[in-house]
Amino acid sequence: MTAPLHPELPDEALIRAMADGTEDALRELHRRYARLLYSLGHRMLKQTDDVESCVQDAFMNAWRHAPRFDPTRASAKTWLVSIAHHRFLQELRDRPDTPLEIEDWDAPTAAPDSDAQIMAQGAVQALDDTQRHLVELAYYRGYSHSELAILTGLPVGTVKSRLRAAIDRMRTHLGIQP
Fold it and tell me: N or C: fewer beta carbons within 10 Å in the chain?
C-alpha cells in the first residue's frame, strides 16, 4: 500500500488544491471518504456496479465543482456526502419502477468500522419510530416531501416539520449546532 498523499492537509485545503487542478488532492479525498460513500451507496442502491459508478461520478463532480466549494456553508465531508447522496438519488429516480418491500431495503447491512458511521447510526436510532421511518424514506430511498405525504397520508407541511424535527434531533444527538 502506498503512503497517503497530503495526509497533513485538512479536507478543505485539499478541495482548494483540487480547484487548482491538483489530482493528488482528489486521490487523498478519495482515500479518506470512499468507504463512507460506498457504504451510503450500498444502503441506498444495493447493486455494487451502480454504487461504484455513482461514487466515481460523485468524485468527478467534486473535482469539477471544487472551485465553488464554500467552507462556510458545509464541511468538506458534508459536501462530498451531499454530492454522492444526490447522485444516488438520481440513480434511484432513473431506475424503472420496481417497488421493494420494506424488509428488502431495510435489512441490516455491514457498515465500515468508522466512527462517523457509528455515530450516524446512533443518531438515527435515537429517533422515534415515526421520525426514523420518514428519514429513511427521504434520505435512503429518495422520496420527495410530496411523495412522503402520499405514502404516509400526512399533509406535506406535517411531513416537512417532522423531518426537520428529526434532523434537529439527530444534530442534538451528535452535538452539532444548527
Answer: N
